[in-house]
Structure formats: structure tokens, C-alpha cells
Write a structure and sequence with these properties.
- The structure is a homodimer.
- Chain A is an alpha/beta fold.
- Helix content of chain A is 39%, strand content 25%.
- Chain A has a single domain (3-258), classed as Carbamate kinase (3-Layer(aba) Sandwich).
- Chain A has helices at residues 11-14, 17-28, 42-50, 66-90, 128-138, 159-170, 203-211, 219-231, 245-250, and strands at residues 3-9, 33-38, 57-58, 61-62, 96-99, 106-110, 120-126, 140-144, 146-148, 154-157, 175-182, 200-202, 236-241, 255-258.
- In chain A, a hairpin with a 2-residue loop joins β3 and β4.
- The radius of gyration of chain A is 17 Å and the shape is globular.
- Chain A binds chain B through residues 50-51, 70, 73-79, 81-83, 85-91, 94-99, 101-104, 130, 133-134, 137-138, 146, 148, 150-154, and chain B through 50-51, 70, 73-79, 81-83, 85-91, 94-99, 101-104, 130, 133-134, 137-138, 146, 148, 150-154.
Chain lengths: 259, 259
């Protein structure tokens, strides 16, 4: 099976031009097919502030009203996506940048939940056939976390989830490695001590650490996503720091998640 | 030869949600392969105003400084591009939205001229092979007028020129129809009288009308573009009103430009 790498970068990379530049240089050098899924970072919040659009967060998740949707569509699918694409191309990597809404590659619906997060999407399906054509033609695809529903409503969508859903869908035809990057070197036993990195985290260890409340808050949905991806056929999932991308690809850095 | 239609819409359509909705409904119904190239409209100017980024126009052309480039990248490649894509999809047209920078489909360089327009691009080349794969896979491509140079610098680029360059490049393999839409029903003998529509404009008539100053200002580069496209092999070029798209496609509305 041909290899594919799917890397998700978070706000901490996007917010730091020097870190982003280094990361994209490393990413451009990954051989073979690859997908970069990017989140938003504080640029959207900054723009909302400048435009006097009040931002509401519930449990760390942004509530996306109509004005906020405009902002995230501009920032994620416009500014961030095209700047990443341009930098990758400057590193001899002819990336194609799209949002999840383009070509109906990701089908989604508006989240219906007890808490109304507004125009937020949950992924239904990834069109593997079309995505495979793009991968075959361009080698590298950069995806902004905007999707849409059947009625043409754009939806702000969690980038971790998009990375996971794409990895799951591609795992049937590719040897798929999913890499989540964030601000830590990996999953830590003690969140304040980078030396406490867990190199290998299996399901039972994860359960125990959750019970002891050593793993908590934002790490829980991230790791739940990771285990779900493995269960659905993704060959490898790891979590680590963007500046260690080469080590994460090689398997020498970060936390490897195993069933 | 297979047919392809390339339609350029200007700011007057983008600025008017009702007109845009009707136009996209008509556009979605065009059979066969098609490309929509969109300009920016006043959304970018509005956003610049809100963000206190002063806008400088020289001869009606926007000077693109660094902050303005950020704004047009957000508005053109983000907000407008993705809203058009979502609306087309709601009309059963699974369009893919990209900018000229994506996948190195359009190669450009920063304009060097007596007047410094800032980060403005001139098109060097269109990658027909990659664009053809996208057309074959998605049928409909929506292109935002942002390109880049070899060094990875994003560039604000004239949408008329992008439409023309794409049409020229595709004319070798497709029976290519290029349609420019703008705020008038076509080229007018008297700019204030829509009834003075010129149905057919050839090169010698154009020269005569330019001499008489009946064709002037913004129409001149538009028509120069049109004649250049025909000379380079584009089968048909016409200019007319977006709300008459069906008639423009059928050849019953607008001005047909002929050599």
C-alpha cells in the first residue's frame, strides 16, 4: 500500500511566523503524498476584535454566528490557506489549497446539540475518489476547516475532526499516518513537565490516566479522535510538536497512540 | 472539440446578493465544463475601511500594499470564493474553488512598471494539464484572482486577465467561449443608452469607435483583452450583463467580439 501522511497543525504554529516557516520547510520535504489540515489560530479572534464582532466561547469552542462565520471563512480559507500554499510552493512543493466545502469533498451537516454553537459542522462523509484525484495530480493538499451542508450553508468545522475523517477514509486505499501537532512534545504524564512525555499510549493506559485525571480537558477529544481513527483502520497515529515534524514522521518523537 | 465556457463576473454582481443568487442559479445550469472567474467588488474596500487600511487607486486600479494584499486574499480567495462555491453546490453543481496560486496553476510575476501598484501580478503561464484534471474531475472550477510568483509572494491579479489567459490556454484543446459580464448589456455606442447596444464588434469598427472616443476608459483594456483572446485561438468572446447569462451563452444577448 502506498503511504500517505496527514498532518494537522494548530493555532500555536499559525500564530508564530518563524515556527510556521520552519514547519512548512520540513513539511515540503516529506516524500510522497501528504495532506496538511490547518486550524485557525488567533488571527480570526484578532480580526473579530478589530471588527467589533463579539466572540463567545463555550468550553473553549467558538460559537459561530453569521458574522463570525464570515470572519473564519476569510481567515481560514483565504488568508491562512493561501499563505501556507504560497510558502510550500516557495519550498518546491506545488500544493493545492482548498476548503472542505470545495468540490463537495467533505459532506457535513450543522451540529444539532443541547448547546447551540451556531454555524458549526459535523462531518458525514469524505469523497475519497475526488480527493485521490487531487492527491495524484498535486501530491500535496492543504485543507481549511470550512465545510458545508447540502443546502449550501458554510460551516466552521473542527480541524482535528477533519484530519481524522480524512485519515479514516483514506485508510482503505493508503497506508495512512495521522499526525496531530500541538504546543507540547506529546501526551505528558505531568502537563507542566515536558520530560514526562509518554512515548506510547495504548487504550488501557489512556483509560487509567483519564481516571487519575492526568489526562483532561482538550486532550480528551483529541485522544478520543486518535483512538477512533486507529479503530477505523488508520495505520499510525501520533501526537507531538510541530517543530519536531521530522521526528514525528520518523517515529522518534511525540506520543504514538496504539489500540 | 469539447466545449468549455469561461465566465468572468465583476463587482456589480458580487455586491448584489439577489443578482448573484440568480446568476449562480443560471451558471449552475450551464451544461458541460465551465470556469467562473470572479473579481472582488466593494467588500474588500468596505473591509479596508473598517480596518483603517487606506486604499489608494491609480486610474481606477487598486494599489496593493501588504495590508491590502491580506484583505484581498481574505475576501477574494476566502469569503467570495467559498460563498460562490457553496451556492453553486446548493444548485447541484459540485464546484471546486481555488485561487490562481493553488497547485501552481497560474504562474505570475510582480508587475514592474513606471507606476508601482504594489503586490500586483502579471500572468506568465497557465498549467493546462493540471487545470484539465480539475475540469475533468469537478466539471466546474471557481477561480479567485490571487496568484503568486516563484518566490511564494501572493499577488493581487486582474480577474479579466486571468479569464483571458485561461481561455487562451484552454483554446488549444477545447472549443472555448469566453464571456465577460459587467454592469451594461454590452458595448454601447452611447454609454448612457442601453438601447445603443452593439451586437457585433469587429477590430476595424473598434478602432473607429476608439478614435471617435465612443469607446473609452475601462472598456479599452477589456476589449483589448477580448481581441487578444480571439487572436490566440479562443473561438468566441462576448461581453454583456450577468443577469442575461443564458442569452450570452446562447449568443442572443450582449456584444459578440470578432476579429
Amino acid at each position: 500500500m502506498e503511504q500517505i501522511r496527514i498532518v494537522k497543525i494548530g493555532g500555536n504554529v499559525i500564530n508564530d511566523p518563524t515556527l510556521l516557516r520552519k514547519f512548512l520547510k520540513d513539511f515540503a520535504q516529506i516524500e510522497g503524498k501528504k495532506i496538511l489540515v490547518h486550524g485557525g489560530g488567533k488571527l480570526a479572534t484578532d480580526l473579530a476584535l478589530k471588527l467589533n464582532v463579539p466572540q463567545q466561547l463555550i468550553d473553549g469552542r467558538r460559537v459561530t454566528d453569521e458574522e463570525t462565520l464570515k470572519i473564519v471563512t476569510m481567515v481560514y480559507a483565504g488568508y491562512i490557506n493561501k499563505n501556507i500554499v504560497a510558502q510550500l510552493q516557495a519550498n518546491k512543493c506545488a500544493a493545492l489549497g482548498i476548503s472542505g466545502a470545495d468540490g463537495e469533498i467533505i459532506k457535513a451537516h450543522k451540529r444539532i446539540a443541547a448547546i447551540d454553537y451556531g454555524f458549526v459542522g459535523d462531518v458525514d462523509e469524505v469523497d475519497i475518489e475526488k480527493l485521490s484525484v487531487l492527491l495524484h495530480t498535486f501530491g500535496t493538499i492543504v485543507i481549511a476547516p470550512i465545510t458545508k451542508d447540502a443546502g449550501g450553508q458554510l460551516l466552521n468545522t473542527n480541524a482535528d475532526t477533519i484530519a481524522q475523517e480524512i485519515a479514516k477514509a483514506l485508510s482503505h486505499t493508503y497506508d495512512t499516518k495521522l499526525i496531530y501537532t500541538f504546543e507540547k512534545t506529546g501526551v505528558l504524564l505531568d502537563v507542566n513537565n515536558e520530560a514526562s512525555l509518554i512515548h506510547r499510549l495504548d487504550k488501557s493506559y489512556y483509560k487509567a490516566l483519564k481516571k487519575e485525571e492526568k489526562i483532561f480537558a482538550g486532550m480528551i477529544p483529541k485522544l478520543d479522535n486518535a483512538f477512533q481513527a486507529l479503530k477505523s483502520g488508520v495505520a499510525t497515529v501520533c501526537i507531538g510538536e510541530a517543530k519536531e515534524l521530522k521526528g514525528l514522521i520518523a517515529g522518534s518523537c511525540g506520543t504514538k497512540i496504539v489500540l
